[in-house]
Amino acid sequence: MTLLESPRAFMPLHPQGNALASQSAQRSLPTLFAAGAEIYAQGETCNCLYRVEFGAVRIYRLLADGRRQISAFHLAGETFGFEAGDTHHFFAEAIVATGIRVLRTAPGAADLLPMALKSLVRAQEHLLVLGRQNALERVSAFLADMAERQGGLRQVELPMSRNDIADYLGLTIETVSRIFTRLKQEGVIRLPSLRRVEIVKLQVLHDLLA
């Protein structure tokens, strides 16, 4: 039985799962997490980095009032898990069936700094999105970013739900749905399915951010 065939591959890592994660890094296949499975939890020891082989991951914290704030989405080919300190300050969950490869980190690793800087830039860009004053600008910035991260394609896959997008942009799900409908009615986008957006007028989308 291979790793992908094993039922345990669909389970989240054990609270002491960094040891298991390190073992899986030695294997040729990524560890597969089912949709909604926890990859790591806030407060767990942070001694690995993680690369998305396929699927998508959401990074979030639970606020004092019980609300969820999503700080990042990670798509195929992207690395996550950078933290300031020895423990994770966020939760990481698979959004859909997701393959994760665990990367052992070592001080002075030649590729560690570029990955960390890329993670920092994405965090800064997210702050800029949240700083935009209206919901239309936030949703437009999100769609433009997703298109860029998927190679500039006009057909953009959105593995995350509208509720995920709302928690990422600091909006309500009703507002996000309303903005998607507005952009569709104005011919800026098409919605072939719930998880796919076709950007018809990319320049108009960028003009909304000017």
Kindly describe this structure.
- With 210 residues, the chain is an alpha+beta fold.
- It folds into two domains: 7-113, Jelly Rolls, CATH 2.60.120.10; 131-207, Orthogonal Bundle (Arc Repressor Mutant, subunit A).
- Helix content is 32%, strand content 25%.
- The protein contains six helices and eleven strands.
- The strands form three sheets. Strands 1-8-3-6 form a four-stranded antiparallel beta sheet. A four-stranded antiparallel beta sheet has the order 2-7-4-5.
- Strand 4 (56-62) and strand 5 (68-75) form a beta hairpin.
- Helix 4 (162-169) packs across helix 5 (173-185).
- The longest helix has 19 residues, at 112-130.
- The N and C termini lie far apart (54 Å).
- Mean pLDDT is 81; it is low at 1-26.
Number of strands: 11
Strand order of the largest sheet: 1-8-3-6
Oligomer description = single chain
The CATH class of the largest domain, by name, is Mainly Beta
CATH architecture of the largest domain: Sandwich
Uncertain regions spanning at least 5 consecutive residues: 1-26
CATH homology group of the largest domain = Jelly Rolls
Tally of helical segments: 6
H and E string: HEEEEEEEEHHEHHEEH
Q: In summary, what is this structure?
A:
This protein is α+β, with helices and mostly antiparallel strands.
Compile the SSE list and pairings.
Blueprint: H1 18-24, E1 31-33, E2 38-40, E3 48-54, E4 56-62, E5 68-75, E6 79-80, E7 91-94, E8 98-104, H2 112-130, H3 135-149, E9 155-157, H4 162-169, H5 173-185, E10 189-193, E11 196-199, H6 202-207
Antiparallel strand pairs: 1-8, 2-7, 3-6, 3-8, 4-5, 4-7, 9-11, 10-11
Helix pairs in contact: 4-5
